[in-house]
Amino acid sequence: MGRGTDRGTRYGRRRARAALDVLAAAVVGVAGCDAAGGDSPAPSPSASKRATTAPAWDTSPGSVAAVGDSITRGFDACAVLSDCPEVSWATGSSAKVDSLAVRLLGKADAAEHSWNYAVTGARMEDLTAQVTRAAERKPELVAVMAGANDACRSTTSAMTPVADFRTQFEEAMATLREKLPKAQVYVSSIPDLKRLWSQGRTNALGKQVWKLGLCPSMLGDADSTDAAATLRRNTVRDRVEDYNEVLREVCAKDRRCRTDDGAVHAYRFGTDQLSHWDWFHPSVDGQARLAEIAYRAVTAKTP
Fold this sequence. Notes:
The chain has two domains: 2-51; 62-299, 3-Layer(aba) Sandwich (Rossmann fold). The protein is α/β, with parallel strands linked by helices. The chain has a five-stranded parallel sheet, sandwiched between helices. The protein has 13 helices and five strands.
């Protein structure tokens, strides 16, 4: 029995050593999966960092730059045929508007850390130059509202082709990304121009201003509702919808870009929200509504 016991003891020891060897191999194998050269490489440091850092969209950016056209300049909101940037939905200082910049930064900081590079009459082809100027300030958020003037032309045939509109917006976004790789971008949809016509045409003064050449593709011959006028206005309406689709599609390709999901286009501007000089551009109250829409989009936890 003593010899058998020795053999059993040695056999038990060999089994124990074998088990330890298998366990060690298993531990090495698991470690190897997490190490460089393993079957399943460990996450790179940058990937690990991305997993623990804040999401791409910051709901409280520290500075704002605005680009776009007359709406963002507050055109006709304070006086006839004049810019009024203090009531701009994006960067204005007026308490009546409570602009996007003021809502995000507070009035004092907004005065120091928000800038308006929009230009009345600008079209999408002008956006790259505006973005280039804005980038010099290194804003954390760039607010964009552009495209209405691409539809507001002398005739429907003069409207910017959709393909060109896309190329121009993509160029502006590429320029912005080259100069400001981490900046966030808020893109407003283009208002429903036909809705603005239907509201403003009830005012005689507004229609007189329209005759000075304000958006003739939509507002020309304002009282006519014959087949030709209806087709013309519907053509403009459809082109604006196409432009808005371009804005959504291009923005969706950029993880730091967010649209209003069509909220401005869907907003039903009434006479209180329209300029009391041209009955087409937003009034001070209309600018405040645009600021509300922008703030909700920028501060939403998800797009």
